[in-house]
Amino acid sequence: MKNEVSRMCFICRNTYNKSNLLRIVKTSSGEILIDKTGKANGRGAYICNSSKCIEQIKKQKVLSRAFKCEFPATVYQKLCEELIDKK
Q1: Per residue in 35-57, pLDDT tens?
Q2: Do the Cβ atoms of 25 and 42 come closer than 8 Å?
Q3: In terms of CB atoms within 10 Å, which of 17, 54, 58, 85 comes out highest?
Q4: Residue 36 CA, distance from chain mean position
């Protein structure tokens, strides 16, 4: 029996199976994207599929904190739209 890897949602801080989370990646070129494979190169952060957590990304600008750099509001808007579409 294979053990499932756990990761923490960087918004609500709850732990979930990695397969149940969405991974957001900052690539070496500075682009922010949703990693559908879970294997993309770059610094990653996981978020659960909760509407509350998705909204918090935009309100609290947590990507800036997670990736230690500033992002324009357009990045947050685009990412939230993509996350909501993935639900």
Answers
A1: 888 888 988 999 998 888 888 88
A2: yes
A3: 54
A4: 11
Per-residue burial over 48-87, b = 16 or more CB atoms within 10 Å of its CB, e = otherwise: beeeebbebbbeeebbeebbeeeeeeebbeebbeebeeee
Q: What is the pTM of this model?
A: 0.80
On the question of pLDDT at 15 being above 90, the answer is: yes
Structure tokens at 85: 């579409």
State the Cα–Cα distance between residues 83 and 75, nearest whole angstrom: 12
SS3 letters across the chain: CCCCCEEECCCCCCEEEHHHCEEEEECCCCCEEEECCCCCCCEEEEECCCHHHHHHHHHHCHHHHHHCCCCCHHHHHHHHHHHHHHC
